[in-house]
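Ticket 4471: requesting a sanity check on a complex prediction with adenosine-5'-triphosphate. Repro inputs:
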Amino acid sequence: MKKEPLKIAFSSQKGGVGKSSVTTLIAGMLHYQKGYQVVVFDCDYPQLSIVRQRERELKAIMQNDYYKKMAHQQFSELNKKAYPIIPCKAETVMQEADKFLSESPIQYDVAFFDLPGTVNSSGILQTLFKMNAIFSPITADRVVMESTLSFLQILNKLFHKHNKKNCHYLFWNMVDGREKSKLYDIYEKVIQQLGLYLMKSYFSDAKRFRKELSDKGNALVFRSTLFPPHSRLIKASRLEEFINEFLQLIQL
Ligand SMILES: Nc1ncnc2c1ncn2[C@@H]1O[C@H](COP(=O)(O)OP(=O)(O)OP(=O)(O)O)[C@@H](O)[C@H]1O
Ligand SMILES: [Mg+2]
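Returned structure tokens:
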């Protein structure tokens, strides 16, 4: 009998806070660097931003000898393929995921779900209910905070009602400057008062999050579905800290 992978969603009601970028960063680290088998279900239909990113990256690799060589080397060293990215509709993703996982010869350790922002439909709530952990990026912006906190309170009540363990974690993304300002302290108090869990690790606002592999350059890789982030950029973004806290929370 195959073991089920841990199901993890990066979810928030507010768009553009970093769900897809952080999903690819964590998935890349786990799959290409930490020896786990990862699969990503991209349910943000029809945008399918992770599916599209993989398509752009494959094209960039075809047109760039530097990346081509890097890909060959990586895949012969690792002896495993790039992680699959499965496009799904949010309403039917659990059936599609179960089918994929039961038919695959690979035993996956982690399945990531990139869900759409609109959590109004009951389909998405049901999907969130099946997750082993839900991570919500937040930014120090009033609209983001209000919508995320109210969404998580609804979700928590629902989980509580069904006797399901609380497994929601918030983390700061796009933090301005090298250190967090006073504004964050104020928000953190509110988060604590609501009984929500905030991760210690966070991501600063940095240009590297916006850059993908390009068919021209040979810039250091950061945000990619085919390679792990470059060690120098892992250090600069304190990604290792984030991953360690993440792994501890999901108990992998
Ligand atoms: N820490 C960061 N620093 C700078 N830019 C970032 C950071 N995190 C994400 N971004 C950028 O912000 C934009 C939105 O990020 P992303 O697409 O990951 O968010 P999302 O929550 O998945 O959005 P959507 O709701 O559209 O799916 C992207 O251009 C991304 O590159
Ligand atoms: Mg997205």
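Notes from triage: The pocket of magnesium ion (ligand 2) is lined by residues 19-20, 44, 49, 114 (CB under 6 Å). Leaving this open until the requester confirms.
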